[in-house]
Each structure stands twice: as structure tokens, then as C-alpha cells.
Write a structure and sequence with these properties.
alpha+beta, Alpha-Beta Plaits, two-stranded antiparallel ribbon, two-stranded antiparallel sheet, 3 helices
Length: 81
């Protein structure tokens, strides 16, 4: 299934802002290895702000790793038709 066939969806009402999703995201991990990475300014596939996660759909590859690690099941992969 190609990236354009699926999308990561955040169930806002369930998110507790724990940040686990940001730490397990392979896209985030790859970006953070860049020597010039600045956690305060660099866009990430998924991040937490004001106690809630948000997704940058231009960066997220919808791999689903965060969905498997979310302790409250606030993230799901939606198959697009």
C-alpha cells in the first residue's frame, strides 16, 4: 500500500500529549540525526504542542509505528479509497 493510499489520523479527544509517538517515529528519528536539527524550529512528522499531538502530512509517511506505541490508541491509520 503506497503512502497516498493511507493517512495517519489523530483522535484529538483521546490524545493525552505524552509524546511517545514523537520518540518512536522513524521519520522524526532520521531528521533528528542531522547535525543542524533544532527541536524548536524543525518540522517533524508528528510533534506535541500544548498537550496534544499534531501531524505534518507533508512529512508523515503513515508507516503506523506511532499507532502501535500510543498508550491510549489516539492514532490510527486510515485507508483512503
Amino acid at each position: 500500500m503506497a503512502k497516498q493510499d493511507k493517512k495517519l489520523v489523530l483522535m484529538d479527544e483521546s490524545c493525552i500529549g505524552c509524546g511517545i509517538c514523537t520518540t518512536v517515529c522513524p521519520t522524526n528519528l532520521k531528521k533528528q540525526k542531522d547535525i543542524n536539527f533544532d527541536v524548536d524550529t524543525e518540522p517533524r512528522a508528528i510533534a506535541v504542542s500544548n498537550g496534544n499531538a499534531f501531524i505534518d502530512y507533508d512529512i508523515c509517511v503513515a508507516c503506523g509505528i506511532c499507532t502501535k506505541n500510543c498508550p491510549v490508541s489516539a492514532l490510527i491509520i486510515e485507508v483512503l479509497t
